[in-house]
Amino acid sequence: MEKLFEHSQVDLYWNKTENYLRLDWRDRVELEVYKNALLKSLEVVEQHQVVRFLIDQRVLEYVGSEAQAWLSVKWFPALEQLVSENVYMAILPSKSLFVRLASQTVSQRLKNTTFYSITKYFDNEALALDWLLSEQPTH
User: Fold this and answer.
1) Which candidate, 14, 11, 65, 1, places its Cα nearest to that of 37?
2) Which of 38, 48, 112, 139 has the highest count of CB atoms within 10 angstroms of its CB?
3) pLDDT, tens digit, for every residue of 48-106?
4) Is-contact 19 50, C-beta < 8 A?
5) What domains can you pick out in the chain, each with its CATH number?
6) Are 32 and 69 in contact (CB under 8 A)?
7) Strand intervals (E) in 8-98
8) Smallest Cα–Cα separation from 59: which of 109, 125, 137, 13?
9) pTM of the prediction?
């Protein structure tokens, strides 16, 4: 697994063999760090047509409403422009109720768009990875 972005609040990895991205979020993420990590992920999506994400939020304590809005209004539409198939997201949820609810709200909003994303939540990392790797991109 190749580390593409490193910060005390997030690490971004690309598994070249299985072609998925992994984001490990921690603590209280600052808006600029949040944006930079996710913009880096879009570069990899564009270069390698990555459509599978493992998102580890288990030790994430807080994401601000501005970051959530940016994710919905900017990042997901940019992702939609880069891929021509389903996007799969396996999420290991935060212990923070606020973060869990915010994540689920974003997932619900996506269901009301033309973008086709399949998001599942897992308490077990091995199960999340099994599901993610069983999903075959459609190109």
Assistant:
1) 11
2) 38
3) 999 999 999 999 888 888 988 898 889 988 998 898 778 899 999 877 654 555 555 55
4) yes
5) 2-134 (3.30.750.24)
6) no
7) 10-15, 20-29, 52-63, 87-92
8) 125
9) 0.86
